[in-house]
């Protein structure tokens, strides 16, 4: 905690200090106005404290209710002008303390009150001073615009202060909203990155488990009925787990996904990916025309993830079917991943939840300026085509 005050506590403390200041100011004003009232006006001794109080005490409403304080001060000034005669030689209809309090309240109204109230206060105060001071015989007041001009300047200054405060508050609010939006976007981007990695890595290896369990009866001769049932049970459980993972990824994924900035696989890692899929039981062949090590990092990452997802889809939706991967590096990188008609026939409920694999591959291709198409072949198989540029040097932000 460290003794630091929150924003609301600081505001409350500032209000307390301001209220204490206005009370002290009112005491000073009444101490000045009461003893000097008989010098400026002809008043009975019994009425002096009341007239001095009307001059000094409206300052107490400076923060609480400036329009009400102004109404009391202006109304009492008008009544004093009309009902209380001046001492000989005094040309000001009400005390200097009264003028100071009235000006302070006009300024407070200009800073805090609604604009329509500010307009009424400005007009009424200008008329009050224009008519009351014009009777003094002073050349400044007899001009008819001196005091109203001073009041107008005071109101304009108050409105400028008000505009600065309002603008500052709007700026602070905007900065807070910007920080919140920036934090929200960072969270969404991190969730999207996690979702892509989970989908590309976990789902891929889970699919390998599924395809191994499904193709084991066709790859291993002499399996007993119990062994076949065990493999079928493993495949069913793995598919159920994969469906749950894909459901979780649907919550994490979001639009506007950005490429990762952390170290990621490259095109040079593709042979290991293909060999791992082959060891998992996928009947896979591949050819590479060109040098994968020359593929830029961003394009290589997109290529790796597209191949990974394509193999996972082929293993999941066409178990036992042969898969062929062809990569050509020339002016651009061309990728083809195709599988034959599936030879394994599923039994029971082996439905797989609709995923976002193809959409994710298209997003990755588009992120580096490439295109990807995917669809069934006439012979019953499925094929993925991607064309990726080789001149991408940095990730697209």
TrEMBL record:
This is histidine kinase. SUPFAM superfamilies: ATPase domain of HSP90 chaperone/DNA topoisomerase II/histidine kinase (SSF55874). The keyword Magnesium does not apply. The lineage of its organism: Bacteria, Bacillati, Actinomycetota, Actinomycetes, Mycobacteriales. Pfam families: HisKA_3. The chain crosses the membrane at residues 20-37, 43-61, 68-86, 92-110, 117-134, 146-165. InterPro entries: HATPase_C_sf, Sensor_HK_TwoCompSys, Sig_transdc_His_kin_sub3_dim/P. GO terms for molecular function: kinase activity.
């Amino acid at each position: 905690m460290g003794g630091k005050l929150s924003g609301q506590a600081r505001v409350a403390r500032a209000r307390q200090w301001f209220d204490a200041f206005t009370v002290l100011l009112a005491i000073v004003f009444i101490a000045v106005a009461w003893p000097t009232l008989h010098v400026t006006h002809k008043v009975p001794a019994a009425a002096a404290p009341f007239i001095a109080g009307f001059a000094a005490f409206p300052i107490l409403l400076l923060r609480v209710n400036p329009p009400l304080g102004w109404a009391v001060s202006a109304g009492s000034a008008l009544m004093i002008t009309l009902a209380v005669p001046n001492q000989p030689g005094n040309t000001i209809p009400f005390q200097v303390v009264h003028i100071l309090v009235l000006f302070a309240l006009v300024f407070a109204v200009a800073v805090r009150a609604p604009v329509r109230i500010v307009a009424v206060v400005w007009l009424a105060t200008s008329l009050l001073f224009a008519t009351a001071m014009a009777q003094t015989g002073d050349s400044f007041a007899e001009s008819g615009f001196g005091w109203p001009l001073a009041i107008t300047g005071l109101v304009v200054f108050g409105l400028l202060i008000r505009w600065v405060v309002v603008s500052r508050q709007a700026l602070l609010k905007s900065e807070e909203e910007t920080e919140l939006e920036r934090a929200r976007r960072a969270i969404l981007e991190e969730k999207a990155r996690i979702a892509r990695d989970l989908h590309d890595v976990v789902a891929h290896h889970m699919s390998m488990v599924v395809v191994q369990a499904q193709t084991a009866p066709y790859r291993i001769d002499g399996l007993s009925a119990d062994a076949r049932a065990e493999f079928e049970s493993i495949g069913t459980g793995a598919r159920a787990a994969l469906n749950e993972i894909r459901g979780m990824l649907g919550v994490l994924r979001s639009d506007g996904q950005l490429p990762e900035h952390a170290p990621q696989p490259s095109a040079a890692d593709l042979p290991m990916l293909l060999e791992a899929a082959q060891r998992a039981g996928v009947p896979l062949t591949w050819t590479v025309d060109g040098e994968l090590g020359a593929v830029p990092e961003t394009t290589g990452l997109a290529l790796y993830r597209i191949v990974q997802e394509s193999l996972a889809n082929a293993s999941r939706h066409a178990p036992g079917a042969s898969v062929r991967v062809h990569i050509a590096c020339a002016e651009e990188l061309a990728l083809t991943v195709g599988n034959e008609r599936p030879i394994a026939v599923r039994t029971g409920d082996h439905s797989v939840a609709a995923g976002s694999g193809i959409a994710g591959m298209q997003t990755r291709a588009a992120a580096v300026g490439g295109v990807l198409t995917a669809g069934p072949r006439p012979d019953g198989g499925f094929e993925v085509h991607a064309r990726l540029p080789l001149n991408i040097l940095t990730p697209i932000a």
